[in-house]
Amino acid sequence: MNIENTIIKTLRGTLLACLLVSSCLMYAQQQGNPTAIMGSWSLNYDLTLADISGVERENYQKANGTIQNKMRQFLSGRRFDFFNDGRFTITNTDGSRLSGVWEFRGSGLLSMLDQNGVEIYYRAGLDGNLLMLVPQGEAMRNVLFKRLFFNRAG
Prior knowledge:
- By secondary structure, this protein is an alpha+beta fold.
- It has a single domain, classed as Lipocalin, CATH 2.40.128.
- Helices cover 36% and strands 32% of the residues.
- It has an eight-stranded antiparallel beta barrel with strand order 1-2-3-4-5-6-7-8.
- A hairpin with a 4-residue loop joins β5 and β6.
- α1 packs across α2.
- It is globular.
């Protein structure tokens, strides 16, 4: 009975994540207003974790509980702030910050260039108070989370 409940919960989480991803991607294709992401966004770790599948899910499940807890602690509450002058700040839960500039390059492609000269691209989707960022290019290599979900923080 316990295994059945676990399977049902996993399927529900996966279905919810798929529906949200689909909704965000459709919205990203329609959205032409890059100022809609301005403001503060907090990483929704539970939704991001529920979205992983395949090899990434297997790798996560193989990690011991201590590593899983450290990941949760480090990522839960990670905050992205997008300012109207084209600047951004990423604040980690340990208080460390990364800043730089951002811009949209058409079709929902978000470019973020940090203070170290590292440029990362995301496909961005926005559905109300939910922002989804899908790393593109080099940012996709060796990542656990193929999609990051954020809730509007303010």
